[in-house]
Amino acid sequence: MRQRWIELGDFLRTRRGRAVPTVATHGGRRQVPGMRREELAVLAGLSPAYYTRLEQGRAPNVSDQVLTAVCRALSLDAAERNHVWRLARPAPATESAGSDETLRPQLRMLLDALSPAPALVLGRDRHLLAWNRTAHAIHAPHLDPTVVDDPATRPWWPELLFCDERVGALFLDWESKARDTVADLRGELGRRPEGDRLAALTGDLRVRSGPFAELWAEYPITACAHHDRVYKHPVVGLLELHDEFLELSDDPSQRLALFAAVPASPSARAIEQLANLSTIG
C-alpha cells in the first residue's frame, strides 16, 4: 500500500521539475528547473504543506478533487493523468498476481496461424511467453526458440533490449524503442505498484544498465499501443514494420504483439524470407 503512494510522489516530482514556472525569479536563473512546490500548490488550490506530503507519499486519503486539480496544474496529458489515477485508485489484484504465467493453448495456435506475419505474447512483467517462427527470427534469432516455453528460462524483454547488444542493434532508433519500453514498465507498475517481482526486476536492471537507469529517472509515461519502427536485421537488412500491442481480454496485463509490413514491399518480402529460413515448425 505504501509503495504506490511513494510511486505517485516520485511521478509528481518529475513532472513538477518539467513544469513552466509561473513566477519570474529576481536576479537571474533558478537554481533548480521547473516549479517550486509552493507555486504548484497555489495553482492547485492546496496548502504547500499538503502538497509536500503528497510528493512524499504521505497523503493516502487524497481526494478525487485534489488529484484533478494537481493534474490540471501540472498540465498532464491523457496518458499521464491515467497513470496518476491508476496509482491513486488501483484496480484489485488479479488471482494470477505473483504466480507463474500460463498461456492459453488457443493463443499458441493463433500465433502459428498468423505466420508468416510476426506475432508474440508478452507477459505481465514483460517476459516473452510465446512467439511464432517469424517473430523469433526477427527479434532474437540467436536464442533457442524453445526458451519461451519454460517459465524458468523465459527471456525478460527489457533485459534483452538493454543488455543484449545483438537485440539492441536491431532497432535503428534504439533510443525511441528504449524510452517506450521504460514507459510501458512505468505504466505497468502504476497498475500494481506493490508488484514485488516487477519492482525487483527493474531495480536490478537500473544497477546493471546506465541507459535504463537514466530513462527510469526521467519517468516517461506514454501509451505504448502502436508504433512504426525500422529494424536493421543481420540477415535481410532493413525492415520497416508497423506494430500493434493488444491487451488480452482475460488478462489485460498480457499483450499480444502483431507486426506487419506494407504489402508487396521489400520489407514484406524480407518477412517471407525470414519465415522460410526459420526451422520452427
TrEMBL record:
Superkingdom assignment: Bacteria
SUPFAM superfamilies assigned: lambda repressor-like DNA-binding domains
Database matches in Gene3D superfamilies: 3.30.450.180, lambda repressor-like DNA-binding domains
Pfam families reported in the protein's UniProt record: HTH_31 (PF13560), MLTR_LBD (PF17765)
Species of the source: Asanoa ferruginea
The protein's name in its UniProt record: Transcriptional regulator with XRE-family HTH domain
Matches recorded under InterPro entries: Cro/C1-type_HTH (IPR001387), Lambda_DNA-bd_dom_sf (IPR010982), MLTR_LBD (IPR041413)
Signal peptide extent: none
Single Gene Ontology MF annotation: DNA binding
Domain HTH cro/C1-type, first and last residues per copy: 30-81
